[in-house]
């Protein structure tokens, strides 16, 4: 059985398919003329170590890969740098494996965790007022998102997560925020698993993204039962495209 749902693998395959510009045993580069302007190149380093790259024909011409080259990740990144092409946004992508989804769906609901609605506006506003601006910006948790769950303690909302369908797909992107004084108490794990369970029952695949240097978020992904799918990088606005 496949590790991840076909919904996930099929989504990413829409970017990494078509004419193969270069391929060796661990590195494959595709040409995709349908890529958006701000995503003229994408790099996906799979959890297995395999590297997939997709780029527009114009960018491929700027990089000038040759079939006879022995391309390594180090060489490729250095070549991008030399040609003024910068990758940024390096995010880890996490999803539930098929086995872990079955475990999640069999779990009982937690009494302290529930779905939030527009009727919880006052509760959510108080929650936001207690969090720092930086935490709010980083988490991107909104009450008007497609799905919102929270954990309550001491008659207040102390942790909240929200999801929205990502890029028009069946992947539900997750944001999570716990008030500083309530961290380390298991609230985030319970909320993430509860909202993920609800998303799965609605036919969506929970997606957890975080920057590669965000150790607390990486730890939360792991303890919540997610499996690393890969590291995703896209074109930086600082790039020089000829």
Automatic annotation (TrEMBL):
Pfam families tied to this protein: GNAT_acetyltran
Coiled-coil stretches: none
Domain N-acetyltransferase span(s) in chain numbering: 111-242
Superkingdom of origin: Bacteria
SUPFAM superfamilies (alphabetical): Acyl-CoA N-acyltransferases (Nat) (SSF55729)
Name listed for the protein in its UniProt record: Acetyltransferase
Species name: Lysinibacillus piscis
